[in-house]
Amino acid sequence: MLLRQFSTSHYCRKARLALGYKQINYRCENLTPGLHILKVKPLTGLTTLPVLLPQMEGQPEAIADSTEIIKFLEAYQPEPKLFLSNHEQQTHAWMLEDWLDESIGTATRFVYYQFRAGEGKEIDPSLLSQVVIGVVRKQYNINNATVKLATNRLANALVELSISWQKSQYLVGDRLSVADITAAALLSPLALIPHYHQEYPWLFERIVEIHQICGEELPPGLESRI
């Protein structure tokens, strides 16, 4: 299988965690923002990543979107399961996954790119990096006002997640699910922001654990925790 991705995208990380958990052999093709459209849109009709190419007879040519990729992987290789057997619990897991995808992943992106454009600029001050950050900020209308809203949204989300993750090893049920993988991936960019390390140590402990379970390299900022 081939995963077309942006190497720094937390949504692409979500797909990699799922592939790793399923112990499926795959390789990554890192695309350049902007130019990626030439390789993605003809296949999916969309301009977003990740896109998974199963490259197997009888399987779809391409699957777009991290959520759809996880659904495909669960059908293609049911074990180990990412879906919970209990219908009510799985419904809850999907609700969390959707909330994390549509709201919290976006909030993380805003906070992260605001940080990278300011005090976090030293992480990679190269011209190319700063150009990409500038393009992303413009594309998503990332500014002081929108970042303030995103910061508040993240704070509320982390309160909610802490209730589950500090009480139990899993967000839903008694084993790893799509909800845990989504949270670990979409909150991972916060690992480079010192404030979040100080305020939410439990979050990064759980992110590390899930990456280790899935055999995925740790996100930047967490490498020393191996």
Report what the structure shows.
The protein is mostly helical and 226 residues long. It has helices spanning 10-21, 37-44, 66-76, 87-117, 127-139, 144-165, 178-186, 194-199, 201-214, and strands at 2-5, 27-30, 51-53, 63-64. A four-stranded mixed β-sheet has the order 2-1-3-4, with helices on one face.
Total beta-strand segments: 4
Distance between the termini: 27 Å
What is the rounded Rg? 17 Å
Shape: globular
The fraction of residues in strands falls at: 5-15%
Strand order of the largest sheet: 2-1-3-4
Largest sheet: 4 strands, mixed
How much helix, percentage-wise, in residues?
Answer: 55-70%
**pLDDT average, as an integer?**
94
Give the number of helices.
9
Uncertain segments are none
Q: Can you write the helix and strand succession as a string? A: EHEHEEHHHHHHH
Structural class: mainly alpha
Brief summary of the model shown:
With 226 residues, the protein is mostly helical. The chain is built from nine helices and four strands.
List keywords for this structure.
226 residues, mainly alpha, 4-stranded mixed beta sheet, 9 helices, 56% helix, 6% strand
Tell me the layout of helices and strands:
Blueprint: E1 2-5, H1 10-21, E2 27-30, H2 37-44, E3 51-53, E4 63-64, H3 66-76, H4 87-117, H5 127-139, H6 144-165, H7 178-186, H8 194-199, H9 201-214
Parallel strand pairs: 1-2
Antiparallel strand pairs: 1-3, 3-4
